[in-house]
Task: inverse folding
């Protein structure tokens, strides 16, 4: 059935545009092998972690690959986030989770949590992209996804076109800790799709760290150069 489907509705690599063969998933093997990996998961003092220094205390921070507007790899995030390509998020999330596990720096994670989406945005999109990544990462780490610990207080406009100050103002105070006992004395890995200024993760982190003994690390698929 897959072979017939590929003939009638050929699957296209979102990075280079070639037709995928039966063994390729979401991305052609050439583009997958050339994915601009960050290797942030191998060391604690990486650019993702440095982004939060003096702002919020995270144990670790990592991203899977570099991202910029001029890169064809931006289509991976765009298709996953806005065009319903959830399988892309699963594939990249498992790649991220595997590298976090193999690095040895994330062995004490208790739960994975996704940056929450406002119910209205969740309804219009049909899914929370961060939730899909979180499920894939958790599967690789061998832990559970913690749902409902964070809540979004209000609907906010997209962060895409905003500068650093506007991003911070847009999400300041938006998230609250809803299930304090679930995160007390736990190490939470907070997951999102893209790390740009870090405003959203910072705000979520402050909310989680209100719980006694809670430790937080963060991980994203992409890191904006």
Result:
């Amino acid at each position: 059935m897959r072979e017939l489907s590929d003939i009638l509705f050929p699957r296209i690599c979102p990075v280079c545009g070639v037709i995928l063969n039966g063994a390729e998933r979401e991305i052609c093997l050439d583009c997958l092998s050339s994915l601009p990996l960050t290797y942030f998961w191998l060391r604690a003092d990486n650019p993702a972690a440095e982004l939060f220094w003096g702002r919020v205390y995270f144990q670790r921070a990592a991203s899977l690959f570099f991202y910029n507007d001029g890169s064809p790899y931006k289509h991976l995030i765009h298709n996953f986030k806005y065009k319903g390509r959830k399988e892309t998020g699963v594939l990249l999330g498992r790649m991220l989770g595997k590298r976090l596990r193999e690095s040895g720096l994330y062995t004490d994670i208790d739960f994975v949590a996704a940056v929450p989406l406002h119910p209205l945005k969740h309804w219009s999109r049909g899914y929370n992209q961060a939730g899909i990544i979180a499920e894939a990462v958790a599967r690789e780490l061998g832990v559970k996804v913690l749902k409902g610990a964070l809540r979004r207080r209000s609907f906010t406009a997209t962060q895409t076109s905003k500068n650093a100050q506007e991003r911070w103002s847009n999400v300041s105070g938006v998230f609250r800790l809803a299930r304090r006992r679930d995160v007390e004395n736990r190490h939470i890995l907070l997951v999102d799709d893209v790390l740009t200024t870090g405003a959203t993760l910072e705000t979520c982190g402050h909310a989680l760290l209100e719980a006694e003994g809670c430790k937080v690390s963060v991980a994203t698929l992409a890191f904006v150069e």
